[in-house]
Amino acid sequence: MSQSKSKSKSKCKYRVSNWSEYDASLKQRGSLTFWLNDEVIEQWVNQEKTGCRGASNIYSDVAIELMVSLSSLFGLAGWQTEGFV
Hints:
Layout: H1 19-29, H2 38-42, H3 61-74, H4 78-84
Helix pairs in contact: 3-4
């Protein structure tokens, strides 16, 4: 009886020698800049009380509309959009 041994395929290992340059390249790769109007920034946090216990009222309608637009534009999930913004 012969036993088959699984051969592990070794990956080519890449070792980073300059971490500061590597980190800078990762930050630059994901760089995206967009500008918001001052009115949007002023209206970002919701100031109205919801009247419901435990209801989240952190973001205003303007902020939620912006997040929905970015989510559909980039195909992100809700928590990914919140982290992105």
